[in-house]
Amino acid sequence: MPQRSKEGTFIVIATIITAIGSLLFGYDTGVISGAILFIKVQFSLSPAEEGFVVSAVLIGALVGAITGGPFTDRLGRKKVIIYSGVLFIIGALVPAIAVNVPMLVSGRIIAGLGVGTASFASPLYIAEVSPPKARGKLVSVSQLLITIGIVVSYLTDFVLAPSANWRAMFALAVIPGFALALGMFFMPESPRWLVAKTRINEAINVLKEIRDSGVDKEVEQIEKELAEEKKSWKELFSPVVKTALIIGVLLAIFQQVTGINTVIYYAPTILQLAGFSSASVSILGTVGIGIVNVIMTVIALSLIDKLGRRPLLIASLSGMTVTLFLLGYFFLIGSKSLSTVALLSLIGYVAFFAIGLGPVFWLLISEIFPLSVRGIASSFAAFVNWTANFVVALTFPDLIINIGKTYTFWVYGIVSIIAIIFIIRYVPETKGLSLEQIQALLAKKFRSDS
């Protein structure tokens, strides 16, 4: 029993430290919503410059997501997460001392590099050190920390707004950035990565720290999987890996094009369109939406290893579809109670997202790819996710102007229906399976679909 408790404590500590990267993911994407109000005044930004400052972190995230994968497979999960912590620190300090717009944008791009890397490296590490029965809950802690990071950024903006101290809004991210880099320094490397690099004895020692039993069998399973695989970008498009890649990429796209970041980035704007005339009330409503996001993510953690991935995804997208069509309908009829309905619809939409599509996507891309290409494949899926994020953030204002509020939300609702059909047809259930068993399941699925 004492040994079991020690192993359990190690897993929890590793999960918390690694998930700090996800906290920074949420903080750095959310903090700009308040800071930009003061930045555009101080630097006299044009609308185009304002848009570029806001989206700069997404540019960095795109680069970080696609380049981080090869480094994760080459240098190891641990080192890459440490480097992402350093990027977060630099990305916080540079905007805080920026004297011009190029310096500010450069800092935000650096922060984005950290965000893009951490968005896949953190859940990947947690998945590879977690026992199968608890992996879903532990990996989903990353999504919980993202939601907490967003709420913390909103609250930070609210507290510092009276003093217009936008520099402090950025600078505060140094603290968790330092905690991430320092904490990971004391963590072991992923045992699966160690086996891939033929450092078998080190892998065995790590597994003895984090498993109660079955260490030799797990090492054998990992070695068997590696023996059957090649290690290159070409392997991403081999028949078996292609099945997992299609699932991962389409889930990455669906997570974004169903509209979640229109709420994260534009919630105050949506609420003002719905009739909230006061900016402060709209921001307060946004904080409330963020809190609901956190609460529902916590609930998802307790359900993801009990109910499974597929049921949560289907329930999540079904609820999102209903709330999106409801929101569009009330914009269409222009009800006098529109402001209240809009707020309730947004809260419902975020709640359904948080209980399924939010955490399950990041969990699945850490589970479904073969070990030899797991870093590259997870990186590619994260890159696609950030690309879709960027496109949605960029096109939402134009959609509102060109097709109207009602049809904009109905478009997202139609995409949600398509996503449900895709999940029912193609996404496998991975609850309780080892990462090696998941590969066997996908290989069998490919053969049956061929």
What can be said about this structure in brief?
The protein contains 20 helices and no strands.
Biggest sheet descriptor: none
Rg, rounded, reads 22 Å
- Overall pLDDT level: 82
CATH topology tier name of the largest domain: Growth Hormone, Chain: A
Task: Write structural notes for this entry.
The chain is mostly helical. The chain has 20 helices and no strands. The protein has 2 domains: about 1-185, MFS general substrate transporter like domains (Growth Hormone, Chain: A); about 230-450, Up-down Bundle (Growth Hormone, Chain: A), CATH 1.20.1250. The protein is globular and about 65 Å long. The termini are far apart. It has helices spanning about 1-30, 30-40, 45-75, 75-95, 100-130, 130-160, 165-170, 175-185, 190-195, 200-210, 215-225, 240-255, 260-275, 280-305, 310-335, 340-355, 355-365, 375-400, 405-425, 435-450. α15 (about 310-335) runs antiparallel to α19. The relative contact order is 0.14.
